[in-house]
From TrEMBL:
<feature type="transmembrane region" description="Helical">
    <location>
        <begin position="210"/>
        <end position="234"/>
    </location>
</feature>
<feature type="domain" description="EamA">
    <location>
        <begin position="9"/>
        <end position="145"/>
    </location>
</feature>
<dbReference type="InterPro" id="IPR004626">
    <property type="entry name" value="RarD"/>
</dbReference>
<keyword id="KW-1133">Transmembrane helix</keyword>
<feature type="transmembrane region" description="Helical">
    <location>
        <begin position="36"/>
        <end position="57"/>
    </location>
</feature>
<feature type="transmembrane region" description="Helical">
    <location>
        <begin position="273"/>
        <end position="291"/>
    </location>
</feature>
<keyword id="KW-1003">Cell membrane</keyword>
<feature type="transmembrane region" description="Helical">
    <location>
        <begin position="105"/>
        <end position="122"/>
    </location>
</feature>
<dbReference type="InterPro" id="IPR000620">
    <property type="entry name" value="EamA_dom"/>
</dbReference>
<feature type="transmembrane region" description="Helical">
    <location>
        <begin position="129"/>
        <end position="146"/>
    </location>
</feature>
<feature type="transmembrane region" description="Helical">
    <location>
        <begin position="180"/>
        <end position="198"/>
    </location>
</feature>
<keyword id="KW-0813">Transport</keyword>
<keyword id="KW-0812">Transmembrane</keyword>
<dbReference type="Pfam" id="PF00892">
    <property type="entry name" value="EamA"/>
</dbReference>
<feature type="transmembrane region" description="Helical">
    <location>
        <begin position="73"/>
        <end position="93"/>
    </location>
</feature>
<feature type="transmembrane region" description="Helical">
    <location>
        <begin position="152"/>
        <end position="168"/>
    </location>
</feature>
<dbReference type="InterPro" id="IPR037185">
    <property type="entry name" value="EmrE-like"/>
</dbReference>
Amino acid sequence: MNDPSHVRSGLWAAAGSFALWGLMPLYWHLLKTVPSLQIVVHRVVWSALFVAGWLLWKNGRGWLRAALARPHAAWMLALSGTLIALNWGLYVWAVNAGHVVETSLGYFINPLLNVVLGVVFLHERLNRVQWLSVALALIGVAWLTWQYGRLPWIAIGLALTFGLYGLLRKLLPIEAVTGLGVESVYLFLPALAVLAWGETHGSGGFFGGWGLGVDVLLVLAGVVTALPLVGFAYAVRRVQLSTIGLMQYIAPTLQFLLGVWFFHEAFDYERAIGFAFIWVALVIFAGDGLWRSRRATALATA
């Protein structure tokens, strides 16, 4: 863990993973001619084949049996797989429907929602600074709700599905890629059935006449899905979690910049006020976490 070369490679892996997640709207934009459901089921099928193949090569044929042998693993991974599929579906639809800025809001909110979930389900306690962060984020969401004239349901839906997904994965101690592999196995047959139904009913199936370039992009969607998670799993074993926690904001920041500067989505002064509350909350939250981490390290060294 303290080997500088390992830390350096971990930092690069984390930065690359978060950058890929942040730039992913560009990838889904290339597939805008394909219905969102078709993109998601292709993403599930090809990522399942990619991840299962990786685990088979790395751990042998018994990887699935060993993973499901853990107590409660079968139903918890089935539920987490459903949540991540809903998250993927909402995210892809939102990007191609012109809501990239709101998707970034969801992933800005997510760390603070994780704190609330920890309080509710894990009986964790927050200090005053953390409560202040949560309160500021709630003010920001309330302001945006008033400005939009509706609840920012895309952002909240993304944050909630991913937050609950993270909670389940925290409760079940299993390696990240192995967990994704089991989830992918659960989702593989339903996704394959959707593709088969589309193939027989003329609504777009395995490859629905979108052209060779789009077909290749659909296949590579599995790699695009799995690769950053593999990099993230590599990084967390070599880099302090406090550093990872700060680096995670690379992804929604890139999404936000793409939404405003590349996709030219509306972002006026009134919406900036709501985002500002959430950004301030994140700065306070991240600063408090970094200070506590360094203090703990200093005490441990002393």
